[in-house]
Specification:
The protein is of the alpha+beta class and about 110 residues long. The protein has 5 helices and 5 strands. The strands form 2 sheets. The protein has a 3-stranded antiparallel β-sheet with strand order 2-1-5. It is elongated and about 100 Å long.
């Protein structure tokens, strides 16, 4: 009687580790140019001027001053810090009692004149 041989799998030959690709040559660090649209001085409306001042400012500076005012007067929502609660000065700018920080920049841009 012949014994049946069990089929055994041969271990697959180990593959060599893939060769590492050469790192691409690093680009020479050049200083980023600021976007001219953000740096253009814009005149705030009279309602916005009560918060940030009447002098023409770049859009980025207007947002910085607005955030300084919000933090100084503790107007961020205590539960959801992304929301800003409007006080008497911000209510005419926002048009509602509470806005998100992302919505704020959109609403403020309506009060800036080129």
């Amino acid at each position: 009687m012949a014994k049946a041989k069990k089929a055994t799998k041969k271990a697959a030959p180990k593959k060599a580790a893939p060769a590492k690709k050469a790192a691409p040559a690093k680009k020479v660090a050049t200083k980023r140019k600021p976007n001219a649209a953000f740096m253009k001085a814009l005149t705030p409306s009279s309602t916005l001027a009560m918060v940030v001042g009447a002098t023409p400012l770049a859009r980025t500076e207007v947002v910085k001053k607005l955030w300084a005012y919000i933090k100084k007067n503790n107007l961020q929502d205590s539960k959801n810090r992304r929301n800003i609660n409007a006080d008497d000065k911000l209510m005419p700018i926002f048009g509602k009692k509470q806005v998100s920080m992302f919505e704020m920049t959109k609403l403020v841009s309506k009060h800036l004149k080129g």
